[in-house]
Protein 1
Amino acid sequence: MDTAEVERLIEDGIEDAEATVTLPRAPDEDHEDAHFAAVVVSPAFEGKTLVQQHQLVYDALGDRMTTDIHALEMKTYTPEEYESRESA
């Protein structure tokens, strides 16, 4: 699984989501490409707790979280939160 596929799964699974997925550390031989980091921006996160936002991402990835993805660092934002973070 590569970063583009993880992005596609998140964007397909969460309404109006924009995902940026990277590999946060050098791949190791045993779990190459299994560690990902994602920044996800979506109006679907509005009014949800951080735990609920992360659950939406996990739901979008489905069984891949137990088969293809060993670890996922994530930051989730509403569009307004993301814009204010960018301008700070």
Note: Residues 19 and 40 are 4 Å apart (CA to CA).
Protein 2
Amino acid sequence: MKKRVAIFISGGGSNMVSLVEDMADPDHPAKPVLVLANSADAGGLAKASDLGVPVVSVDHRPFKGDRPAFEAALNAELDKVSPDILCLAGFMRVLTEGFVAPWEGRMLNIHPSLLPKYKGLHTHSRALEAGDNEHGCTVHMVTPVLDDGPILGQARVPVEKDDTAETLAARVLVKEHQLYPACLRRFAAGDTTRVDL
């Protein structure tokens, strides 16, 4: 029985696309059952629809900072499709412990740094400012602590001397599109062995 996967996005959904395309493999242990965005304007919704995945948006703005109410609306949509695994793929809302706790051990996230370095935002510029000679991305299980939790995989890229935050981000994104599908494929099969690319 394939694991049912819901994917949360906020923008263009490039990591979502890489996950969905990988799950199109008939031998994949999981299948996408929903792509959910926190804005109807998220470009990834149209991409998911084109790939045949059901989509829904739950706009966070009407909730005016009432995170529990927003998260109750998210859960109402998840209840309709009964996912086994939740993948955060560029979802730019911080989720509370009340939402995360029931999903702990079943929720994954991709973060554009080599965690535990550079939790939070602006990871590429922070890596450059620190003079790092390598940077990358991390797939981890989500816990109530932001950008924390057991690491399932990392991919590394060298930092070039003429890199900007934008050029570095572009190279890291290529690795994200390889790492996240590899980690989800193993995780859905019950294998939490670390993936390193």
Note: The CA atoms of residues 153 and 195 lie 4 Å apart.
